[in-house]
Design a protein that fits this description.
about 450 residues, alpha+beta, two-stranded antiparallel sheet, 15 helices, 8 strands
Length: about 450
């Protein structure tokens, strides 16, 4: 309902500007629902490469060129968006970059009823089961891996049994193994006992950087396959591999080739033979516990073009709320929950309770001078004591800020996380980060 109303406001605004006919709107989702009952007859849900996890809405709206009300049954995916937009507005695709997607413009504008793909649509998730899926026309081939990655299975089983007792009592019935696994990740239960157990469960099942070499060697690990005709079996209940051997072997060959290429090209940022930090795609040269927090949780700290610091603050809060709601905030080993709360106080704009409003002057991403070139000290690598911080916050510059004693303590603890460490220490902060417990628990 909220999405529907938000899109309505967008369309109304574009219409009032006279730009609705000149705007292409693409509506889509990134995955299926984590609630199995919301996926209809589709098999599985979020996190799975079966249809319940990957079949999502896809709507194109451009009344000037696309006739409304049509439904296209040609399989397509998000990787088609870029070449399709290029085709719709008549510009060349980016050069020097391999694009796996195809231009859907002829289908959308009625210029063609057929799309020829250079390679089938495919999905790959190295730690999931199934691990790879390939789609060609009405057929989809699903592949499961045999390799398992090293986890503390005994600890996982113990936590799951404790969670089983809670959720089965709540639902009044016994759960199958797959139902229990789904509930452990996605149950809407909010009790503190449940939150602590789920935090432990997520931590035990979190991706480990040490798995990367095993994953990259796993091209031949797919040994079980199922073939489905989605035009007749959208719920993927009937494996037709025996009935359709030619289709099965053709797609199997293509799947293994594409999956092998994906694994070969995937980056390996694990620390091999002392070759350095090898943290994946980290452009920043800053090395602190706070920077590790930002990295592992993908927290946005740089403003977009024409984005104000207040807008960025709200975007950060939105990201953190999303992660907290799924019990997925990860903290570096030297960062406490109190320091994390201090970060939220630092970036909170004035309309938020317990707002430090620090980013009004100490601007992200560097926490230094603002755009008005005022002489504002950087918050990084400071050595102020708690007493000095309290005194600073009581001066004329900060007199409009109202923080209680606990707020100031949390803010002080966060400031300690802005001190730089060595590259090797920084790498350990990232790879040893753990999921944050509920407020009553300890990290």
């Amino acid at each position: 309902d909220n999405t529907d109303r938000a899109i309505g406001r967008l369309v109304k605004k574009l219409d009032s500007m006279g730009e609705l006919e000149n705007t292409i709107i693409v509506y889509m989702s990134d995955h299926g629902s984590y609630r199995q009952e919301r996926n209809g007859e589709l098999r599985n849900g979020k996190g799975s490469l079966l249809e319940g996890g990957i079949r999502t809405p896809g709507i194109f709206y451009w009344p000037r060129e696309i006739r409304g009300g049509g439904v296209e049954d040609t399989p397509a995916g998000s990787l088609d968006i870029l070449p399709t937009l290029c085709g719709l507005i008549g510009i060349e695709k980016p050069g020097g970059v391999p694009l796996d997607g195809e231009d859907l413009a002829p289908l959308l504008t009625g210029q063609s009823s057929k799309l020829e793909r250079r390679q089938p649509l495919s999905w790959h998730s190295p730690t999931s089961q199934p691990v790879a899926v390939i789609r060609e026309g009405k057929h989809t081939l699903v592949g499961w891996r045999t390799r398992e990655y090293p986890k503390d299975k005994a600890a996982i089983d113990a936590v799951m049994e404790q969670m089983r007792a809670i959720v089965e009592k709540k639902e009044g019935r016994e759960l199958s193994a797959s139902e229990l696994w789904h509930r452990c990740y996605n149950s809407p239960l909010k009790t503190e006992d449940w939150k602590k157990l789920r935090s432990r469960f997520v931590t035990l099942n979190t991706f480990q950087e040490s798995w990367i070499p095993l994953i990259k060697k796993g091209a031949g690990d797919i040994t079980r396959f199922e073939l489905f005709d989605l035009s007749k079996d959208i719920g993927q209940r009937r494996n037709i591999a025996i009935q359709e051997p030619k289709v099965f072997h053709r797609l199997q060959k293509k799947m293994l080739a594409i999956h092998g290429e994906v694994l070969r090209e995937a980056p390996d940022w694990s620390n091999r033979n002392g070759e350095g930090i090898r943290i994946h795609r980290l452009k920043s040269k800053k090395r602190s516990a706070f920077d590790a927090l930002v990295y592992v949780n993908r927290i946005p700290i740089e403003p977009d073009d024409e984005e104000t610091q207040e807008d960025l603050s709200y975007r950060i809060f939105s990201r953190l709320s999303n992660q907290e709601g799924r019990v997925q905030i990860k903290l570096p080993p030297t960062m406490s929950r109190e320091a994390y709360e201090g970060f939220k106080i630092a970036v909170a704009p004035g309309k938020v309770a317990h707002a430090g409003q620090c980013t009004q002057c100490h601007r992200l991403p560097d926490f230094a001078d603002n755009l008005n070139k005022q002489v504002v000290p950087s918050l990084r690598n400071r050595n102020d004591s708690l007493a000095r911080l309290s005194k600073i916050l009581a001066n004329r510059t900060h007199r409009e800020i109202r923080l209680d004693e606990n707020d100031i303590k949390h803010l002080y603890q966060w400031l300690q996380t802005l001190k730089d460490v060595t590259d090797s220490e920084f790498r350990n902060l990232i790879i040893r980060s753990t999921v944050m417990d509920s407020p009553e628990g300890k990290k």
